[in-house]
Design a protein that fits this description.
The complex is a heterodimer.
Chain A lengths: L3 H5 L4 H12 L4 E2 H12 L5 H13 L3 E9 L5 E8 L1 H17 L10
Antiparallel strand pairs in A: 1-3, 2-3
Chain B lengths: L1 H50 L10 H10 L2 H22 L1 H36 L2
Helix pairs in contact in B: 2-4, 3-4
Classes of the chains: A alpha+beta, B mainly alpha.
């Protein structure tokens, strides 16, 4: 599990995008859905490797939780791994977005969190 | 005179016999060729039916899958291979098998570095933590 300091470390850009993408897909999304959501909205093509290493890091920090889902034929009978953002993850994301909003002198960014 | 006539007719007979011989030989050759080709086709069709070896494999490149298997941690292995195969099938339907295979290799190549750097980072962190915890 993560060290207490890990949770206070600010979220990186990719971590924020991934957390927002999961929340946008009913807070229950698997790898391809997250990747497609990010590609669709901000036209950023992230690799599967970057996605899963970031998700792994977020899970170690306690910001997301994963569970294995169903296997489908189009995936060669392999199961999906679903992720959801935890309450701690939502708080960290809210704090991070609030910091950006304050620095940019904007209204607090909300809606997803 | 009679002798001469006899000679000519036997020569004609010889020629027609030679022609007949070559014709028979040719017919036999053609028949053999047809037989060989047919047997070959039947055997090839049988091989295709039972092994599907002559068909191009409609699955992701096996060696690329093996590389993913090597570099990805066990906890995410199945999910990552599944995601990659889902993308592969989507590209195959849209652009064909060759593009799909290229896309798969491209994704594996791009994904290798994050996993390797993550592994090295964890290894170095654990190594130094072992000194500080003493």
């Amino acid at each position: 599990m993560s060290a207490p300091n890990d949770r206070k470390t600010p979220l990186g850009d990719l971590e924020k995008f991934i957390l927002l993408a999961i929340l946008k897909v009913r807070n229950n999304a698997y790898g391809t859905e997250i990747k497609n959501e990010i590609k669709e909205v901000i036209n950023k093509d992230i690799s599967v490797g970057a996605l899963y290493t970031t998700l792994d890091r977020l899970e170690n920090r306690g910001f997301v939780k994963s569970r294995m889902g169903e296997a489908t034929e189009e995936r060669g009978g392999r199961a999906k791994k679903y992720f959801r953002v935890t309450a701690e993850g939502q708080t960290a994301l809210e704090r991070s977005l609030d910091e950006i909003a304050r620095m940019a002198n904007l209204q607090p960014i909300g809606g997803y969190v | 005179m009679k002798n001469n006539h006899n000679n000519t007719s036997s020569q004609e007979l010889d020629e027609s016999a030679v022609k007949e011989f070559f014709l028979e030989k040719r017919i036999l050759q053609v028949a053999t060729d047809i037989f060989v080709v047919s047997v070959n086709d039947i055997l090839r069709a049988g091989l295709l039916f039972f092994t599907h070896e002559s068909l191009p494999r409609q699955l992701p490149p096996r060696f690329a899958e093996f590389l993913v298997y090597l570099i990805v941690p066990k906890s995410s292995r199945e999910a990552i291979l599944g995601d990659l195969e889902e993308d592969f099938n989507e590209v195959r339907e849209k652009f064909g098998l060759r593009h799909a295979k290229f896309y798969y290799w491209w994704q594996v190549g791009r994904s290798a570095w994050p996993f390797i750097s993550d592994f090295v980072k964890k290894f170095v962190t654990d190594y130094f933590r072992s000194f500080t915890s003493r």
